[in-house]
Inverse folding.
């Protein structure tokens, strides 16, 4: 079933189109053609911890069951698989993710599910991120500046559909590229303190509204108290104290101090903003959906690391609706009288789907 999930999310025709767009179609017949390597790279996230040979064997069985041809077959060595991954590169996986995320967002719009992600005329997105460990090789350390690569993810708060992803070498580097893609009419909710003032200015420049949790050390002078208990303040960039500040409204809610560009208490009630912040999507949802804890990417070079990251996000996007459906079925089962009398607890995993 896990391989079937991949084929449903990334049909062979779409995989082939991404391969051609990335310019990595093989020029001669190979035992590991580009299409096979796309599905293999995705399958690495389904069977984490398994060796290349075991993953390829499971993939081959699953693809045969699904009736998807993989080209001529042989028993390639681990070295051959590594070389084939290098030939594939990271661009195919990035294109697959963009296409799948765009299709999922369009489907949500058509079905009306996206209505749950709109609030008072604004489209709500969550910005979150984190670090993923990379293999300790000279090439990786030189490219990423340390043992980690940083991701910033823009996602819908309810269904967790990915909107945009940035990859960088420091916590806030990828955040800027993600926010550059925003448009007016978007409310970005985040709990990332970091250098939030700089990211704040980036978002403000493109006309997006924000609801953010600042660092405790950020100075927020109480310039004008408001009737609902919030107050107006100004936010100054970290790197340039002489730059123009941004007008913000400060909310002191029970579990956080929040700042927002939505200055009118009547148009943006504090209770509703606090609820939006509590309901934000979290970066940990990636690993919860994949059912894996903190991982160290196996790739020994930067292109392989980037390829693995895009593949991870692809599999998250593909598995997300399956996991939500499974969770709903478990919830319904737990609520039934027969289940209450005869509980059979079991935690499903990505391998279980296979």
């Amino acid at each position: 079933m896990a391989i079937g999930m991949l084929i449903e999310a990334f049909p062979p025709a779409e995989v082939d189109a991404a391969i051609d767009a990335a310019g990595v179609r093989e020029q001669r017949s190979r035992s590991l053609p580009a299409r096979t390597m796309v599905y293999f790279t995705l399958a690495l996230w389904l069977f984490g911890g398994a060796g290349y040979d075991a993953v390829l064997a499971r993939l081959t069985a699953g693809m045969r069951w699904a009736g998807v041809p993989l080209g001529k077959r042989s028993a390639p060595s681990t070295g051959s698989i590594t070389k084939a991954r290098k030939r594939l590169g990271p661009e195919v996986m990035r294109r697959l993710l963009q296409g799948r995320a765009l299709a999922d967002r369009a489907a949500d719009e058509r079905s009306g599910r996206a209505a749950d992600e709109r609030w008072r005329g604004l489209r709500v997105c969550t910005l979150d991120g984190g670090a993923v460990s990379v293999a300790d090789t000279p090439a990786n350390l030189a490219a990423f500046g340390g043992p980690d690569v940083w991701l910033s993810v823009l996602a819908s708060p309810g269904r967790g559909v990915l909107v945009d992803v940035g990859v960088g070498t420091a916590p806030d580097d990828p955040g800027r590229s993600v926010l550059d893609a925003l448009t007016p009419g978007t409310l970005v909710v985040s709990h990332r303190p970091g250098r939030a003032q700089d990211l704040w200015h980036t978002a403000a420049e493109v006309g997006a509204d924000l609801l953010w949790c600042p660092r405790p050390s950020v100075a927020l002078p109480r310039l004008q108290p408001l009737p609902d208990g919030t107050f107006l303040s100004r936010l100054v960039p970290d790197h340039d104290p002489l730059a123009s500040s941004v007008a913000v409204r400060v909310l002191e809610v029970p579990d956080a101090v929040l700042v927002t560009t939505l200055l009118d208490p009547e148009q943006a009630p504090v209770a509703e903003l606090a609820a939006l912040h509590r309901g934000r999507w979290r970066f940990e949802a990636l690993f919860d959906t994949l059912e894996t804890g903190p991982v160290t990417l196996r790739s020994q070079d930067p292109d392989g690391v980037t390829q693995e990251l895009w593949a991870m996000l692809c599999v998250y996007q593909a598995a997300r609706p399956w996991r939500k459906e499974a969770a709903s079925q478990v919830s319904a089962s737990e609520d039934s009288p027969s289940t209450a009398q005869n509980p059979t607890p079991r935690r499903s995993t990505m391998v279980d789907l296979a």
